Amino acid sequence: MSCCNATGERPTFRDLTRRINADDKRLINCQSVDVNQLMPLKYHWAWEHYLNGCRNHWMPDEVPMQQDVELWKSNRLTPDERRVIMRNLGFFSTAESLVGNNIVLGVFKHVTNPECRQYLLRQAFEEAIHTHTFHYICESLGLDEREVFNMYHEVNSIHDKDAFEMTLTESLADPHFSTETTAGVQQFLRNLVGYYVIMEGIFFYSGFVMMLNFKRQNRMVGIGQQFEYIMRDESTHLNFGIDLINGIKEENPDAWTPALMAELQTMIERAVELEVAYAQDCLPKGILGLNSEAFRDYVQHIADRRLERIGLKSRYGSRNPFPWLSETIDIAKEKNFFETRVTEYQKASASTLDW
C-alpha cells in the first residue's frame, strides 16, 4: 500500500484501517496499518495458538510446595540428585529470560502480522511467569537465589548454551536491522530457529525429562507439576515458532536457499552437542534410571523431529529412550492434547494433573 493517498497526502488513520484486508497482513514487512488490527484474521493457526496459551494460564504460587520443602531439607536426596535439580533451576532461570528478551526486544517489532503479535504478547507474559516460577521455587526451598540465577556465569555447560543463543539476538537488537532485504529475512530466520527450534524445542526438553522423572518417582512433586505446566506452554511456543518459520519461508522463498538450510542444519547439530554436554554435566553418574548416554539418543531423536518440521532432512535416526514420556512430551501428542484434552488443563490450582 502506498504511503500517500490520491491527493499526495499521508493517509489518515481512518483510511488505513478501512483499507486493510487479510491479504495485506503479511508475517513480516507489512506496512499497511499502524495498529494491531486483528480482524479479518489471515493466519488462523496464530489465533489458535493464542487461545491455547490463554487456556493454559497458571501461576506458580498456586502450586503447593510443602512436600518438596520437606524432602529438600531431609537426607533422602543424594548429592547427585540435588545436582540435577540445581543445574536445571540454574539453566531455566536464565534461559526463560533470554527468550523473553528476544521476543520483546527483537522479534516483536519485526513480526507485522497482528494475530502473530497477539500471540507474542501472550508468550512474553508466559516467559515472565516461568521466570517467576524459579524465583518461587528458590524462595520455597530456601535456596541462595544469587547462586541459582548466576549459574550461567559459573557452570560451563549452562554458559555455553546461553552464549550460543545470545549470538543470535545481537543483530536483531541493532537499531538499523531490517527484514526488508533477503539477507535480513535470512538473519531473522536464524534467530527464530535458534530460539524456537533450538532453545525451546531442544535445550528445554532434556530438563523436562530430568525434572519430570523426579515426579514420576513421586518426589519433588510441586516442582514437577510446575515443570509440567511450563512444558505445556513451551510446546505451544515451539508449534507457533515452527508455523511462523514455515510461513515466512512461504512468503519469502528467495530467502530459503540451500546455503541457509545447510547453515541451519549445522546450528542444530551444534545445539545437539551442547545439550549432550549439558546432560553429561548434570548426570555424571546417572540417577533414577537416567544417564547421559540415554540423553544423547533422546536429544538426537527430538532434533530429527525439529529438522523435519521446518523442511530439513533428519540427521540421526536415534530412538526415543523414554517411552514413558509419550503422553506428556512427544511432539506427536501435542496437537492431540490441545484438540481433545484442553478442559483438563485450565488452572494449576487443581490438586493434580490428570494425564
Salient structural properties:
64% helix; single chain; mainly alpha; disordered C terminus; Ribonucleotide Reductase, subunit A; 2 domains; 355 residues
Describe it for me?
There is one protein chain. Mean pLDDT is 86; it is low at 1-8, 13-18 and 329-355. The protein folds into 2 domains: 1-42, no CATH class; 49-344, Ribonucleotide Reductase, subunit A. The protein is mainly alpha-helical and 355 residues long. It has 14 helices and no strands. Helix 4 runs parallel beside helix 8, helix 10 runs parallel beside helix 12 and helix 12 (258-282) packs antiparallel against helix 13.
What proportion strand? under 5%
First-residue to last-residue Cα separation: 49 Å
Contiguous uncertain segments of 5+ residues: 1-8, 13-18, 329-355
Number of strands: 0
Q: Whole-number radius of gyration?
A: 21 Å
What is the element string, with H for helices and E for strands?
HHHHHHHHHHHHHH
Concise synopsis of the structure shown:
With 355 residues, the chain is mostly helical.
Topology of helices and strands:
Layout: H1 13-19, H2 44-55, H3 66-73, H4 79-107, H5 114-141, H6 145-149, H7 151-154, H8 156-166, H9 170-173, H10 182-216, H11 221-251, H12 258-282, H13 292-309, H14 331-340
Helix pairs in contact: 2-5, 2-11, 4-5, 4-8, 4-10, 5-11, 8-12, 10-11, 10-12, 10-13, 12-13
